[in-house]
Amino acid sequence: PSDTGRVLSIQSHTVQGYVGNKSAVFPLQLLGYDVDPINSVQFSNHTGYPTFKGQVLNGQQLCDLIEGLEANDLLFYTHVLTGYIGSVSFLDTILEVINKLRAVNPKLTYVCDPVMGDEGKLYVPEELVHVYREKVVPLASMLTPNQFEAEKLTGLRINSEEDGREACAILHAAGPSKVVITSITIGGILLLIGSHQKEKGLKPEQFKILIHKIPAYFTGTGDLMTALLLGWSNKYPDNLDKVAELAVSTLQQALLRRTLDDYKRAGYDPTSSSLEIRLIQSQEEIRNPNVELKAERY
Ligand code: ADP
Ligand code: PLP
Ligand code: ZN
I need a surface site. Which of 77, 97, 177, 291 has the fewest CB within 10 A? Predict the structure, then answer.
């Protein structure tokens, strides 16, 4: 077994481009993790393109893979990571998988990106919201919603930093001791809010990071962000602020800036369509991010 960890990552796969597992597996490997990907879908490209084709894994097929691992005594994991999930039956099976893995390793960390939508729009079936709220959030160790997802999970409208902090507190009460709202937009400013409740009932330690908003739309950034938060969290379990600084720094300096520069150099208008991140080209910034953006504690 590796000394850092072994991650079961259940996410999308795209043949071309970087979302889901394509965006999470490489950085986790660079940070020293053994990563076992299960591809919840295999699509030609991400769904932001005009069309896509491919296959969707169903709950039974996920069960088959887990049974295969179990039959060979291969169910020891330190972490499970989940991202985009398209159906209630698949999400229910994931719940069974978490319970099974926790029976093998009671210390299993479950990092959940509750992918449901963005900018006011749901891109999963409405029934999924309820399942996330009632069954998934209670099992999660770390939750990484965006603003819209945090609103869906808490029923709160997030219009201020205070609202963001309160949403984190509500989510702690439901289960996860670590919550990172990866971005909220307030008055044109991008803000990350992190919250670590070190013991049940205690007031959570909270912080924010102000992020310079780049005028372009990127895909796969949420998936990459969650993978980096998992990766650094395991190395600094009691410093969520430092973990978030490292993760945000990689995203800003390396990927977004490098991606933007590359597209511009190639003569593309970065505001015209969604951009694929330059992940492989940014391996140095993934391994050794230069922390420029600092967390401010509340
Ligand atoms: P999701 O893709 O899940 O909605 P976010 O939009 O919160 O996730 O993006 C995750 C991270 O990616 C943010 O915390 C931020 O660091 C970075 N990011 C994404 N889009 C931008 C942008 N336009 N400008 C600056 N940073 C961005
Ligand atoms: N998975 C698939 C198949 C997608 O098409 C997308 C976005 O288009 C994502 C995951 C998530 O992307 P993001 O990290 O930008 O939310
Ligand atoms: Zn997301």
Answer: 291
Q: How far is the CA of 222 from the centre of ligand 1 (A)?
A: 6
223 catalytic per annotation: yes
Tell me if residue 102 falls in helix, strand or coil: helix
The ranges assigned to domains in the chain are: 6-297
Phi, psi of 192, deg, nearest 5: -100, 135
CB count in 10 Å sphere of residue 65:
16
Query: What is the per-residue pLDDT across 234-245, written as a single tens digit (0 to 9) for each?
Result: 999 999 999 999
Interval 99-146: pLDDT, tens: 999 999 999 999 999 999 998 999 899 999 999 999 999 999 999 999
Residues within a 6 A CB radius of ligand 2: 12, 14, 19-20, 41, 43, 46-48, 84, 219-223
Q: How far apart are CA 231 and CA 216, in angstroms?
A: 26
Indicate which ligand has the atom closest to the C-alpha of 189: 1
Q: 118 CB under 6 A from ligand 1? A: yes
The torsion region of residue 78 among left (phi > 0), alpha (psi -120 to 50) and beta comes to alpha
Dist. CA 145–CA 36, nearest whole Å = 23
pTM score: 0.96
Report the C-alpha gap between 68 and 61 in whole angstroms. Answer: 11
Measured from the Cα of 219, ligand 1's closest atom is: 2
Q: Residue 52: how many CA atoms within 13 Å on its side-chain side?
A: 17
Q: Which residues pair with 206 in a beta bridge?
A: 195
Q: Which one is catalytic: 3, 34, 36, 223?
A: 223
Instruction: Using most ligand atoms within 8 A of CB, pick from 16, 38, 47, 123 the residue to mutate for ligand 2.
Output: 47
Best mutation site among 115, 229, 249, 251 for ligand 1 pocket (most ligand atoms within 8 Å of CB): 251
CATH of domain 6-297: 3.40.1190.20
